Records
---
Amino acid sequence: MQYTFRITLCLIFFVVLSCGNSKEETTNDQLFKLDLILSENFVKITVPEETDFTFPDSAAKKEPYKIEDFNADGKEDIMVYLGACGTGGCIYGLFLNQYDNYYKLAFMNYLKGAAFEKEKNGFLTIKSFEEVEAYNPSKLKVSVYKFDENHNKYKLDLTYVLKD
C-alpha cells in the first residue's frame, strides 16, 4: 500500500511540474524575440538559440515595413525589411506575434511593390508585383500569398500575369 502511495505521489508531482512550466520556458527556444526601436526605425531580432537560421543579408539594417494584425488574432504583427535586394525585389520577413515580444516567422521571401488586402476573415493577403520583362511595367507577374491557418504560415496561393 505504501509503495502504491509513493508511486501515485511521484506521478502527481511529475504532472504538476510538467504543467507548471510557463509559456515562455516551453516555447522561447522556437520563437524570435523582436524589439521594435521606432526612434531609430530599427527592429532588433534575436534568433532562437537552437536553430541554424541566418539572415539573407546580415549587413542590412532590419527595418519595420508594416505593423498590423496579419492573421486576425488581435495582436500586432511585424513585417521586416531584411535586405538582399535584387531585380526581383528585396527579402521581407513576416513575424506573427505570439506573446510579449516573441514572434513566429511566418513568411520570408522576395517582395517587389508589395500590396496588402484585408480578406473577409480579417487575414491580410500579401501581393508582390514583378515585371515580366525588365523595365516594362505593362506586364506584371503578380504573386499572391495567403495565410494558411493549419500551418500558421503564409504560402503562395497563386500567380498570374497582369497586362496593361
---
Amino acid sequence: MKIIARALSALVACATMLAAPAASAQRWIMSGVAEASSGVEGGGGRAQAMGRAQTRMRIGADLAVDESPEDIFGAAVLVAVEPRTAFGIDARYTRLVADRFAFSGGVVGYLQPGSLVGPVAAFEYRHPIAKSFFITAGPELDVFVVGTDLPDRTVLWQALFHVGMRVSF
C-alpha cells in the first residue's frame, strides 16, 4: 500500500508540474543610439588654456527591463574625428525622468592612440518624432583622471553638447 501511495503522490506531483502554466520572463527593451558632440576642454592648471574639444560620434545600444523601463544600462563606441583622431568606449546608467528627460552617469575612456579614462555625467532631452524614434540633445561633462595621455598631477575635462537620435526596438 505504501508503494502505491508513493507512486500515486509522485504521479500527482508530476502532473501538477506539467500542467502548470509556463512562467513569463521579463522582456528586454533595446534602443540604438547615435550622437554627435563637441564643446570645450581644459585642465592642466592655470598654464593650460581652455580650447575646443574633439568632435566625436557616439554609437551604441541601451538595455532596459520592461518592468522598470526608467532604469537603462548602455554602452557605446566613441570615435573622435577632429582636431585629432581617437577611439574609445563608454558605459552608462541612465535614469529616465518624465518620459522626455534623462540623467546618466558612468565611465568614459579613450583607448587609442593613448588612454584617458574617467567619469561622465550627462543630461538629455528626448523629443519624440514617432512612437519609437526620438531626437536627443543635451550637455555632457567628462573628467579624465587616469591615462597615458594625462600630464602628471593633472585632471582634464570636456564640457560637450550632443545632438543625436534614439530608436527603440
